[in-house]
Design brief:
little secondary structure, 2 strands, about 0% helix, Viral_Tip_Attach_Protein, GpJ_HDII-ins2, Host specificity protein J
């Protein structure tokens, strides 16, 4: 909890703002806009590219977050070589 039973702050320097999550609500003060996140949870490889289509007319920004397990490739002999990731995002 951010406050004790008397309403006094337990953690100083933190402000909590309640939003009910309605579609047309304004963003909290100090934020330009609101957003939502969709977790895909899929493995992307050169052999298995991933395509996703977003059709909402309300989108004006897109943030893509991805992670890699390692940027080192291990050969069958046990040698470890640097690896890389190439990412292509197309907006149409």
């Amino acid at each position: 909890p951010l406050t004790d039973t008397d309403g006094n702050p337990v953690i100083h320097g933190v402000t909590a703002v309640w939003r009910a999550g309605e579609q047309e609500q304004t963003p909290p003060e100090g934020f330009e806009s609101s957003g939502s996140e969709t977790v895909l949870g899929v493995e992307v490889t050169r052999a298995k590219p991933v395509t996703r289509t977003i059709t909402s007319a309300n989108i004006d920004r897109l943030r893509v977050t991805f992670g890699v397990q390692s940027l080192v490739e291990t050969t069958s002999k046990g040698d470890r070589n640097p690896s890389s990731v190439r990412l292509l995002i197309q907006l149409q």
